[in-house]
Amino acid sequence: MKVIDQIREYFEGNSPVFFANLKTHVWLSSFSMILAMLVCIPLGIWISRRLKIANYIINAINIFRVIPSLAVLALAMPLLGVGFAPAAAALTLLAGPPILINTYIAFREINPAVKEAAYGMGMTPMQTIWKVELPLALPVMLAGIRTASVEIIASATLAVLIGGGGLGSYIINGVSMMSKSYLLIGAVPVAMLAILSEIAFSLLQRKTNYSH
Amino acid sequence: MSYLFDHPDKVMPFFWEHVRLTFTSLLIALCIALPLGFVIAKYRKLQAPVTSVLGIIYTIPSMALYAALIPYTGLGKTTAMIGLVAYAQMILVRNVVAAIQGIDPMMIEAAKGMGMSKRQIVFRIEVPLAVPVVLAGIRVATVSIISIGTVAAWIGAGGLGRLIYQGLNHDHTGKIVAGTVTIALLAIGADLLFRIVEKIFSPRTA
């Protein structure tokens, strides 16, 4: 039987299973991304105002970032057990560094004269962050979020190894069973998700860029 | 941790296998990336298509790329290395191009003005200025190869990833910890080593 027929046959009987896996994959990735953003964006803004602390934190993060994603995911199992939560925790840790580093750089690079002007107009520090700095920092921040999202969609494929579910299950089973159709049912949607998220964030990045 | 200290004889073969896999893939990747980067830096028309193709490959998650390759190239080291070389291309080519195009034309002009020959300009101006940027690319590529190589253990690449997968499959915490700690040390060590090499080769500006 041809591969395309096998895939069609799979979808005839099991399309709810596929969509459940797709949903888990997307939910796992977006949950981790949102959590990482909630922690790392404020942290990035905070350290951009404390350059001495920032140096230590950025250096530590650059070392952490080098550690392979599989190692971080695998280590979650003995520490946190199996399932969605350990997978989400590991993915959040992996999503953090690019978001934090880009937020920090984006806010650090803002021309001090712009901030000065905002204060001179009577804006409070909070207003300055929301109305002046954030819009200026957004393109660089989005570049970090884009990198993180592509990495997380890829790493979420490995989440199945610690019981996190997702589209990785097709690839893992496909290798075990040497089933071409299973491999493709997993690989094509994962690749599409990664490319789509790359394109979506690139467009958003271009839209928010004031300098053009 | 105890597994790592009690059975270093079982961990070290995986470690060396990983080092060999990384080194071989890096060498092959460089053999392709250096000429490719050089060509597209000179023929700018090729730059956009080549970098976008490499960018798309780079965006595809490693597991998905391997899943797509397995039906054609099977399980094992060859498939693993095809993937590793493909991912490294994007990083290496980008840095080779940046290294060549980043050289300030004024420098070349100044060298000419000082009466340097073409040969002297290449070896005493262009190469020393380009090497640190290329080395930075090699550093990032090495770390990526180490990382993706861990994943590639699933398709039979061997190395420390295999130890981690064994640990995950058999719920053997000792193996998981030994694998993750050793791979982390390998990645951090490689990063540090290349940072030092980069520093040695950076031109002193005073």
Automatic annotation (TrEMBL), chain A:
Keyword terms: Membrane, Transmembrane, Transmembrane helix, Transport
GO cellular component terms, semicolon-separated: plasma membrane
Domain ABC transmembrane type-1: 22-205
Metal-binding listed as a keyword: no
Membrane-topology descriptor: Multi-pass membrane protein
Cellular location(s): Cell membrane; Membrane
Residues passing through the membrane, by range: 26-48, 60-81, 87-107, 152-172, 184-204
Major localization listed first in the record, in broad terms: membrane
Keyword Protein biosynthesis set for record: no
BP terms from Gene Ontology: glycine betaine transport; transmembrane transport
Annotated Gene3D superfamilies: MetI-like
Family indicated by similarity: Belongs to the binding-protein-dependent transport system permease family.
Protein name stated in the entry: ABC transporter permease
TrEMBL record, chain B:
Keyword Membrane attributed: yes
Entry's Gene Ontology BP terms: glycine betaine transport; transmembrane transport
GO cellular component: plasma membrane
Coiled coil: none
InterPro entries listed in its UniProt record: ABC_transp_perm/SBD, MetI-like, MetI-like_sf
Residue ranges constituting the ABC transmembrane type-1 domain according to the UniProt record: 15-194
Keywords noted in UniProt: Membrane, Transmembrane, Transmembrane helix, Transport
CDD domains, alphabetized: TM_PBP2
Topology of this chain in the membrane: Multi-pass membrane protein
Cellular localization per UniProt: Cell membrane; Membrane
The keyword ATP-binding appears for this protein: no
Primary location group: membrane
Transmembrane spans: 20-41, 53-74, 80-100, 144-164, 176-197
Top-level taxon of origin: Bacteria
Family: Belongs to the binding-protein-dependent transport system permease family.
Protein name per its UniProtKB record: ABC transporter permease
Origin species: Cohnella endophytica
Organism placement in taxonomy: Bacteria, Bacillati, Bacillota, Bacilli, Bacillales
